[in-house]
Write a structure and sequence with these properties.
The protein has twelve helices and 14 strands. It is α/β, with parallel strands linked by helices and 336 residues long. The protein has two domains: 156 residues, Rossmann fold (3-Layer(aba) Sandwich); 153 residues, Dihydrodipicolinate Reductase, domain 2 (2-Layer Sandwich).
Length: 336
C-alpha cells in the first residue's frame, strides 16, 4: 500500500513524543512534518530519547507548509490555539485529528468551560468524538476527529455500558492521574517537592472534564446523567486509575454487562479483580473491573493517560479514517 504522509503540529509535549514513537513504527503513515511554536530547536534537544533515532527538522508551525506535504495532521497543541490551525488545514481539504479540547464539546459547553469564544463553530458542528468503541463508523468517514480527554476516556469506557441501569443522580467518579497528564509546563502543584510522596484532589466537582463526561453520556449513551467528578494527582509519571460509584435501578450481573459490551473488543480487557495502572502503562489497553453490593455498583478502570488517553487513541482513529486495521502499530505491551 502507498505511504500516507502525516504531520504533527506541537511536537514538544509528552503527547507529541508519543505520537512520534507510534508513527515511526507505522508501516503506512509516513511522518513528513513536525513543528512547534518556535521552530528554533532540534528534535533531539526537545526529546533527547530521539537522538540517533529520528533526524528531522522541527519547523515553526505553519498551515500552508504542513498542507503542502501531508494528507493528515495531528494537532498536539494547547486548548484554544488548536482550532485556528484546524480551520485552516481543513480548508485545504486535509484531515485533522485534534488532541486538544477545542472540538470535543458543544459550542455553549466549550465557551462556558474554556472561557473563550469558539472561532470555528462550522467545523465544530461536524467533528466526530473519537471514542473508538462507540464511534467506529463515524470515524471512518470523518475529516475532523476530536480526540477524547484522558479522564473522560477512562471514565466513559467504564460508565457507558451501565447507563441504562443507573440512577441518574447517583454517580461519583474518583479519578487519579500521573503528573504527565498536566503537561510539560511546570506548575506549583506539579513541582517535585509538592508532588513527591503526596497526593491531592483538584477542582473537585468543577473540573472541565466533568461536563465532557456528562455531555458524552447523553450523546453516546442516550441518557442524561449527573456526574460528580473528583480528579486527583498521583506521584507517578504516567497512568490513570478511575473508580466509579453508582446506584442501580435494577439487579444486574456487572461482569455480564461488560462482556456483552466489550467481549469482542481487542483493546479492552475485562478483569476479574481490581485493575492496576502498571498493567496498562505503555499500552493502548483499557482494563475494566466491576462489582456490586446490593444496589451499589463499583466500576474500576485503568489506562495509560498519554496513550489510550491521547496519542494511541488518535492513531487508532487515523487507522480507521484510512481503512486500515485499527490496531496497526498500536502498542500492546506495557513498559513496566
Amino acid at each position: 500500500m502507498e505511504k500516507i504522509p502525516v504531520g504533527i503540529l506541537g511536537c514538544s509535549g509528552y503527547t507529541g513524543l508519543e505520537l512520534i514513537k507510534i508513527l515511526l513504527a507505522h508501516p503506512i503513515f509516513e511522518l513528513k512534518y513536525i513543528s512547534n511554536s518556535s521552530g528554533d530547536e532540534s528534535l533531539s534537544a526537545i526529546h533527547p530519547s530521539l537522538a540517533d533515532v529520528l533526524d528531522m527538522p522541527v519547523s515553526k508551525s505553519d498551515t500552508q507548509a504542513v498542507c503542502e506535504v501531508c494528507d493528515l495532521v495531528f494537532l498536539a497543541l494547547p486548548h484554544k490555539s488548536a482550532m485556528g490551525f484546524a480551520k485552516e488545514i481543513l480548508s485545504y481539504g486535509k484531515k485533522v485529528i485534534d488532541l486538544s479540547a477545542d472540538y470535543r464539546l458543544k459550542l455553549d459547553n466549550y465557551e462556558h468551560n474554556y472561557h473563550t469564544p469558539h472561532t470555528d463553530p462550522q467545523n465544530l458542528a461536524h467533528a466526530v468524538y473519537g471514542l473508538i468503541e462507540y464511534a467506529r463508523e463515524s470515524i471512518q468517514t470523518a475529516t475532523l476527529i476530536a480526540n477524547p480527554g484522558c479522564y473522560p476516556t477512562a471514565t466513559l469506557l467504564g460508565l457507558l455500558p451501565f447507563l441504562p441501569f443507573l440512577e441518574p443522580t447517583s454517580v461519583f467518579v474518583d479519578a487519579k492521574s500521573g503528573v504527565s497528564g498536566a503537561g510539560k509546563k511546570l506548575t506549583q502543584t506539579s513541582h517535585y517537592p509538592t508532588i513527591n510522596e503526596n497526593t491531592f484532589s483538584y477542582a473537585p466537582l468543577s473540573h472541565r472534564h466533568q461536563i465532557e463526561i456528562e455531555e458524552k453520556c447523553e450523546l453516546l449513551g442516550h441518557q442524561p446523567l449527573q456526574v460528580n467528578f473528583i480528579p486527583h494527582l498521583l506521584p507517578l509519571t504516567r497512568g490513570m486509575l478511575v473508580s466509579i460509584f453508582g446506584r442501580l435501578k435494577e439487579d444486574i450481573d456487572p461482569m455480564e454487562v461488560l462482556n456483552v459490551h466489550y467481549g469482542n473488543e481487542a483493546f479492552i480487557r475485562i478483569r476479574n479483580e481490581p485493575v492496576m495502572v502498571k498493567n496498562v502503562c505503555g499500552s493502548h489497553f483499557c482494563d475494566i473491573f466491576a462489582l456490586k453490593r446490593g444496589k451499589d455498583l463499583y466500576i474500576n478502570t485503568a489506562i495509560d493517560n498519554l496513550l489510550r488517553g491521547a496519542s494511541s487513541q488518535a492513531v487508532v482513529s487515523a487507522n480507521l479514517m484510512y481503512g486500515l486495521h485499527e490496531g496497526l502499530a498500536i502498542p500492546k505491551i506495557g513498559s513496566i
